[in-house]
Structures are given as structure tokens and as C-alpha cells.
Amino acid sequence: MKNTIIIFASLTTLAIGENLLPEDFTRCRQKDAKLNDCLKGAVPDALRRMTKGIPALSVPPLEPLLVSGMNIETGAGPVVISQVYRNIQLHGLTDSRLTSYKADLKHYRLRTDSITPKMDFIADYVMKGRILVLPIQGKGVANITMVNLVVKHDLIGEPVIKDGETYMHIKDYKVKFIPERVILHFSNLFNGDKALGDNMNKFLNQNSDLVFNELKESYEKSLSSVFQDVTNKIFDKVPMNKIFPEE
Ligand SMILES: *[C@@H]1O[C@H](CO)[C@@H](O)[C@H](O)[C@H]1NC(C)=O
Q1: Index of the ligand 1 atom closest to the CA of residue 141
Q2: Would you call 168 helix, strand, or coil by DSSP?
Q3: Which long-range contacts (C-beta less than 8 Å, at least 24 apart) are formed by 71-78?
Q4: Residue 186, Cβ neighbours under 10 Å: how many?
Q5: Quick one: the chain helix, strand, coil %, rounded to 5?
Q6: How far, in Å, are 87, 88, 144, 211 from residue 124 at the CA level?
Q7: Which residues line ligand 1 (CB under 6 A)?
Q8: Is the pTM of this model over 0.85?
Q9: Among 175, 200, 173, CA closest to 109
């Protein structure tokens, strides 16, 4: 009985394979003179509909979005730290709005700017190093909050043809993070010494621009590959003309 259900389920998936993009997602037509305006509304709407993911496309839940890990080594300059983050949770992505959209589907290129009112990055961390003249080390939970985070996304795609259908595979996804303000909190710094930890957290926040600037590139790199994976979960499975209908 169980096998029958599984077979039936996979047949159904095959049969609707081309229409896997949920029905309630807004489609924007390729030839729409207002394609960019359409996408500006459709994409954040789709993000909100993906709060719990799309199991049929193996799109993970976006709220929170889980990231397995990230290692950061900054070598020179005022911030020299090695950091390991594990069990990362990103909160707030689905509250993003898009402020501009530039789609160039002929060249498989999408560029968009988004603003996220509050993005919390929560993770287990281990770190060791030096910030300005101060040594820093700890192992605990990190909470990095980016307030009014502007993200510039640049998606560079290429056509991939499978069974006569064209898919828009994203081969490169670049992001730039421009937060208005960053709030950092690391629990259990200095083996749990409360006075040292409180002072260091205060110091980090007084210098949050400097600290964030040193770490920004690593965050951008890690998160762009997460965004690329999520996008390709959809773009590699749903033909381009089912995402952006031709007529
Ligand atoms: C992380 O920090 C922000 C800003 O201080 C706070 O609003 C949020 O509740 C914190 N999250 C956790 C899980 O501690």
C-alpha cells in the first residue's frame, strides 16, 4: 500500500513537473512593458509564500533560513579574527521589499535592490583574534542584527536546455550588503567572564562599522551562495517560460 502511494506520488510529481511553481505565485510576462514593476511586487510576495518552503521543489523554509556553516579568516588590518559559525539561522528575509528591479531576460540577467527592515543572524560561534589592540576569544551564541539592510543582488544566469525546455540556471549570484546599523552580541566571550564579555560587546558596538566592514565580504560570499542555491531550486526545475510566461 505504502509503495503504491509513493509511486502514485512520484507519477503525480512527474505529471505536474512543469507546473511546480505554486499556483498562487504571480507570473510576470516576458514581454510585459512593465516587467520590472511586476517583478518588484511578485518576488517579495513569493518570498512570503515561501516562509515554510516549497516541499515539491525542495525549497527550504525561508523563515528562518538555515545555513550549515561559515568560516571566516581575516588576515591583515585592524580586525584579525578567525571565526567559525555553525547552525546559522537567518531571520527576517521574508519581510524584504524590493526597491528596484532590472530584468534583462534576453541575457539571463536579473538585478535587484532589496531592503530588509531587520535581519537577525543567529549562530553558534567560536572565535579568536584581535580587534584593534584588544584580544578577543569566545565560544557561544552570536546575534548579529542588521537594521534597514539594503542588499544589491546581481544574478547572472545562462540557458540550460533539458528535454526541449529552456531553464534559466543562475551560475553566479553576487550580493552587496549595506546595513544602516549593525548590532552585535556574542554570548560567553572570554570563557564566560561577564565583565570582560560585557565590555567587549560594548566595544564591538561602538566600533560596529569597522568590525562589520572587515567581515562583510565573508558574509556576502556565504549568503550569496545560499541565495543562489535557493533560486536554482526553482530555476533548475521550472522551465523559464513557466516562471516568466512568453505570452
Ligand atoms: C538579536 O538581537 C536583536 C537586536 O538586539 C534582538 O531584537 C533579537 O531579539 C535578538 N535575537 C535573539 C535570538 O537573541
Answers
A1: 14
A2: strand
A3: 72/215, 72/218, 74/129, 74/214, 74/215, 74/218, 77/214, 78/131, 78/132, 78/210, 78/214
A4: 21
A5: 35, 45, 20
A6: 6, 7, 11, 18
A7: 120, 122, 143, 145, 183, 185
A8: yes
A9: 173
Superfamily holding 7-243: TULIP domain (3.15.10.30)
Q: Which residues pair with 153 in a beta bridge?
A: 112, 175
Domain boundaries, the chain: 7-243
Is the separation of the CB atoms in 98 and 112 below 8 Å? yes
Pocket test for ligand 1, best of 88, 118, 143, 208 (most atoms within 8 A of CB): 143
29-86 pLDDT, tens digit each: 999 999 999 999 999 999 999 999 999 899 999 999 999 898 988 767 888 889 999 9
pLDDT in tens, 73-128: 876 788 888 999 999 999 999 999 999 999 999 999 999 999 999 999 999 999 99
| Nearest residue by C-alpha to atom 3 in ligand 1 | 145
